[in-house]
Amino acid sequence: MTNKPLLSIISRGALLLILTVGVMSCIVTGCVPSFKFNGASLDYSVYRTISIGNFPIRAALVYPPLQTTFENELLNYISRNTRLQTLGANANSDLSLEGEITAYNLTPQAVTEDAYASKTRLTITVRVKYTDTKKENADLDQSFTAYRDFDASQMLTDVQDQLCQEISEEIVIQIFNATLSNW
Which of 108, 107, 84 is nearest to 97 (CA)? Predict the structure, then answer.
């Protein structure tokens, strides 16, 4: 019989118990690991500048603050997640992003038994033209869409600013991942 210190045996047992409980907890509660990739995959010796153009609203339904909200979110996200120098529209740069807000729609969702909608969906679509002056076949012309549902008993004017901010953030991440992140 070996003489293992009692503390060592207890410590291993406690660790095994903690790991078992942790795994069982994840299985029972549906714990799912998640990974967030938000860094750019750019060669900064090649790419130094990006021009960001205006994104005018070309949708049938217009909410004027949306343009500023979206443009600010795009500029801030690129500034936080890359080392690129941001330039204004039509500047001579290594990369450029420009486009337009093509849809701003409200649609009823979750119709109840009395034929009234209990939820309303706000959907925004942004068309983006991405140009890479350093690499052939890297350009992109694509639309990105995101939405948020809100309770139909709420007035759009009460939730519009918050929803536009949330949707803009989601669309900006989609754009970033499709262009600068290249995952």
Answer: 84
Q: Match 């942004």 to its residue by tokens.
A: 126
Phi and psi of 176, rounded to 5°? -60, -45
pTM of the model: 0.76
**For the residues of the chain, what is the DSSP string, one character each?**
-----HHHHHHHHHHHHHHHHHHHHHHHHT-------------TTT--EEEE----B-SSS--THHHHHHHHHHHHHHHHH--PEEE-TT---SEEEEEEEEEEEEEEEEE-TTS-EEEEEEEEEEEEEEEESSSTT--EEEEEEEEEEEETTS-HHHHHHHHHHHHHHHHHHHHHIIIII--
- pLDDT 10s digits, 87-139: 988 889 999 999 999 999 999 998 877 778 899 999 999 999 999 999 989 99
* Residue found by looking up tokens 């918050």 in the block: 162
Q: Where are the beta strands (DSSP E) in 37-151?
A: 49-52, 85-87, 95-111, 117-132, 140-151
Q: Are 104 and 66 in contact (CB under 8 A)?
A: yes
Stretch 73-82: mean pLDDT: 96
